[in-house]
């Protein structure tokens, strides 16, 4: 019995040693090719940093010089809440010959909001389950002009 156990152990060690000597070579997508060249962009090495919260690119075209007081207060309220993905943006447009402000939705089936220049809500032009908003200004997306990004959540 003892010799059978010893024989089995020796056989397993021999098989393991033979398997380890086969020269297995492991590469990752970031390793350069052995021959030739790689077409396209290379894959960056993985990081150990937690990437649950994406960092949106800051917009260089945001116009912060013309923010009315009510909009500055609205922005303060947005910044007091949890960041959203995608980040909330506020655009200024000309709609029916009036300056209006359009606030994007924080996600998915939420309504967007269209404000008059004095901060009163005009309508919710899109979003919601149907994607068509509240129906009060269904022509906004077609008639808007002079788009200008006023603010984007930088978080």
TrEMBL record:
Segment forming the signal sequence: 1-17
Coiled coil: none
Domain DUF6970 as annotated: residue spans: 77-153
Keywords for this protein: Signal
Region (Disordered): 29-53
Database matches in InterPro entries: DUF6970 (IPR054243)
Comp. bias (Polar residues): 36-53
Name under which the protein is recorded: DUF6970 domain-containing protein
């Amino acid at each position: 019995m003892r010799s059978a156990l010893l024989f089995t152990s020796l056989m397993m060690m021999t098989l393991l040693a033979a398997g380890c000597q086969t020269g297995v070579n492991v590469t990752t997508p970031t390793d350069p090719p052995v021959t030739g060249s790689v077409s396209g962009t290379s894959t960056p090495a993985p990081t150990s940093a937690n990437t649950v919260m994406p960092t949106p690119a800051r917009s260089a075209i945001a116009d912060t010089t013309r923010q009315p007081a009510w909009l500055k207060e609205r922005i303060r309220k947005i910044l007091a809440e949890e960041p959203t993905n995608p980040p909330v943006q506020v655009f200024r447009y000309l709609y029916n010959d009036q300056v209006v402000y359009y606030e994007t939705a924080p996600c998915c089936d939420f309504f967007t909001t269209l404000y008059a220049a004095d901060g009163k809500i005009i309508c919710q032009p899109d979003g919601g389950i149907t994607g068509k908003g509240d129906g009060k200004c269904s022509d906004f997306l077609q008639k808007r002009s002079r788009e200008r990004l006023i603010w984007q959540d930088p978080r």
